[in-house]
TrEMBL record:
Similarity section: Belongs to the AHA1 family.
Name of this chain's protein: Activator of Hsp90 ATPase homologue 1/2-like C-terminal domain-containing protein
Coiled-coil annotated spans: none
Residue span(s) of domain Activator of Hsp90 ATPase homologue 1/2-like C-terminal: 15-142
Matches recorded under CDD domains: SRPBCC_CalC_Aha1-like
InterPro entries in alphabetical order: ASHA1/2-like_C, START-like_dom_sf
Origin superkingdom: Bacteria
Source organism of this protein record: Stieleria maiorica
Amino acid sequence: MNDSSAPVVVEQSFDASTELVWKAITEREHMVQWFFENILEFRAEPGFETQFDIDTGSRVFRHLWKITEVIPKQKIVYDWRYEGFTGQGKVTFEVFEEAEGSKLRVTNEGIESFPNDIPEFTRESCEDGWTYLLQTSLKQYLDG
C-alpha cells in the first residue's frame, strides 16, 4: 500500500463511558453538537441513507452517507460520497473501553479516489478535519 492509499486514522481517549461516546456518534441530537450541525436525520441502522450540505466558504458540498455496518456500542461504518464528484470513501468509527473511560478510533479509507485538485479532498485536509473533530470538537462536547 502506498502512502496515497493508506487510510487516515485518528484516535482520541475520553473521560466518558463507551455508552456516552456511542450516543455522541450515532444519535442526531448529539451529533449536531460536535460533528455536522446540518444533519437533518440519522439512524444507526445498516442501509440508512442521509444527505446534507456543508458550506466551506468557497463552495457547498452535499455529503451522501449510507450506513453499511453497525455493531451496537462498538462500531459503525459509512460509505461517504459527495454529490457531483467522483470517489467514494469508507469511514469506520470504533469505540473501545479503557481503564479511565473510552477511546474512539476513526478510520477514513478511499481518500485517493476523490479528485486530487480540490483542496477539501486532500489527505492533509482529511487528517486535519478528523483531528479537529475528535481531539477538539468531540472532546469539548463530551467534557462539556
